[in-house]
């Protein structure tokens, strides 16, 4: 296969959490000297959008799993304070506030993913850490799980309350499976519609210096050897179709493992 890139396993490893996508058929990526095309001039726009969604989801997933987060948050916006329909303006102003607050709170870090309402307005989902305890105020309300077997207090962050309503849940004590569920929940907001409307624009925002997972594409004949030492906390199978014909041409098993260091 010459200089083509060949793999059947895509891996993301972030501490104790590992994600392995195992392809039933070997994937061959033609070698092109690293040239990925001129930004904004994709020949196949639809393919570019699909790839953008996939890359963005994997990047966000990696940041969520590779960093310690204290809060899961949602920020909505007061229409009298900011244009809720202009995502560029929202993020420009909100990021400016966060960067200012980072000069006061050195450990502040964030990951922001937008969600668009049916009416076109946006709000933000966020993973946050480093907010001083005295800047958090109990809202007087609690979050209850779907099966009502636990509840958590809902907090408001005083430093950003002037933008609208914010909603903070402490997640620093989550078990690995729960972190995976939250990661899966937030990446679903990176949709084809968002990627289309944000073509060649940012689709998520982070503070500088976030830890990143180790990523690799490899060729293996022993997937069981990777799985056996660890606890499988999630397993999902899906199929890859030809976008033009609908024909299935590969099967992928997506494993998420909890694999703590034995010493």
Oligomer: single chain
Number of helical stretches of at least 4 residues:
5
Class inferred from helices and paired strands = alpha+beta
| β-sheet strand percentage | 35-45%
Shape: globular
Biggest sheet record: 5 strands, antiparallel
By DSSP, the count of extended strands is 12
Rg calc: 20 Å
How far apart the termini lie comes to 41 Å
Mean pLDDT over all positions: 88
Helix content: 10-25%
Would you list the SSEs in sequence order as H and E?
Answer: EEHEHEEEEEHHEEHEE
- In terms of per-residue confidence, which ranges show pLDDT below 50 for 5 or more consecutive residues? none
Strand order of the largest sheet: 10-1-2-12-11
List the helices and strands and how they pair.
Elements: E1 5-14, E2 17-29, H1 45-66, E3 71-75, H2 87-104, E4 109-116, E5 122-129, E6 136-144, E7 151-157, E8 166-170, H3 176-187, H4 192-197, E9 205-206, E10 214-218, H5 223-227, E11 231-241, E12 248-258
Antiparallel strand pairs: 1-2, 1-10, 2-12, 3-5, 3-8, 4-5, 4-9, 6-7, 11-12
Q: How would you characterize the overall build of this protein?
A:
- The chain has 263 residues and is of the alpha+beta class.
- The protein has a domain at 71-171.
- 24% of the residues lie in helices and 36% in strands.
- The chain has helices at residues 45-66, 87-104, 176-187, 192-197, 223-227, and strands spanning 5-14, 17-29, 71-75, 109-116, 122-129, 136-144, 151-157, 166-170, 205-206, 214-218, 231-241, 248-258.
- The strands form 3 sheets. A 5-stranded antiparallel beta sheet has the order 10-1-2-12-11, with helices on one face.
- Helix 1 (45-66) runs antiparallel to helix 3 (176-187).
- The chain is globular.
- It starts with a strand and ends in a 5-residue tail after the last strand.
- The model has no long low-confidence stretch (mean pLDDT 88).
